[in-house]
Amino acid sequence: MACFTKINYLYFKGEFCMKKKFLAMFLVVVMGGIMLAGCGTKEADTTKKANGELDKVNLQLKWLPQSQFMGYYVAASKGYYKDEGIDINILPGGSDIIAEQNVSNGAADIGVTWVSSLMTYQAQGYDLQEIAQTFQKSGLLLVSKKATGINSPKDLAGKKVANWFGGNEYEVLALLEKYKLDKEKDLKLVQQDYTMDQLQEGTVDASSAMTYNEFGLLLEKGISKDDLNVINMNDEGVAMLEDCLFVNSAWASKNEDLVARFLRASIKGWKEACADPEAAGKIVYDLDKSVSLEHQVYMAKEVAKLVAPEGFDAAKIGQIDMNAVKQTGDFLKLYNKDLAKTPVVDETTFTSKYLDKAAK
Description:
This protein is of the alpha/beta class. It has helices spanning 15-38, 70-77, 80-83, 99-104, 115-123, 170-178, 197-201, 214-220, 249-254, 256-275, 277-288, 293-307, 322-335, 353-359; strands spanning 55-60, 86-91, 110-114, 128-133, 140-145, 160-163, 188-191, 206-210, 228-232, 243-248. The strands form 2 sheets. A 5-stranded mixed β-sheet has the order 2-1-3-10-4. Strands 7-6-8-5-9 form a 5-stranded mixed β-sheet.
């Protein structure tokens, strides 16, 4: 059984006499200084602690424990965080947990979210900053049964198309715009649940699916790939960036070395997970036996394709492609009418300085 660093799912006395007195006073001052240093507010981290004490870091996930986050679990399992002087606490997400809010209010130190969601909170005034981009490609698909006749995006006209919304719909809206389809008049967008039952039962014509999760669930239910049509957002040129790591800017600026150490351990975990997704999937499954071992391994293999796509240099895992970030911001502003202001894409909101420090 793998040995994990701490992981939490739901959620630190005439001349001789004078010399003796001087020595005693010296010791009192020194010991008092040590005691004072150990009390009060925690000082900003500047380097790995020399006394072997571990720095606690709370990592807030976007969703429940699954292979979507395998890099962090592998790093914890292999002791990579501990090697960097970190006591990692991995907090599960969920539909009622907002990673951006937890990082902003200090309930978590570092979070995982989609870039479009992060931008929405940044535009509302949250002092949040991306520090690494784990997914280099979008994992979002639109899936339909061949019998519905959706052979290309233009065939979505007149159909019921399902999505989870909550920020997950922007790539779909960009796709519709590309093919000049009005989301109000030309088709019907409906709320999607967290299963693929609606598509399987025929109550919708096309469903949203992540390559690493829902698409796999369809296949596991016995539906053949040959009976499905798939629209890939990357192929259509409307992809938006998904999983990234972000921090509260003020906290990170006071803990630069800690952030760099966290990234170094995390990237090491991601590299190993992508190199051996079967082993990574098993590590994740052993955490809480979610769904099935086969599904976690399937998910791990598909996630690896997004983190380190074909032709991508695995040494660059986590790098931030600012052009892709800008594309995500452009789409977000175009389709999120409630956005407070245009997303800012610069060093204040997206920075590689911690990743660069981690690589040194």
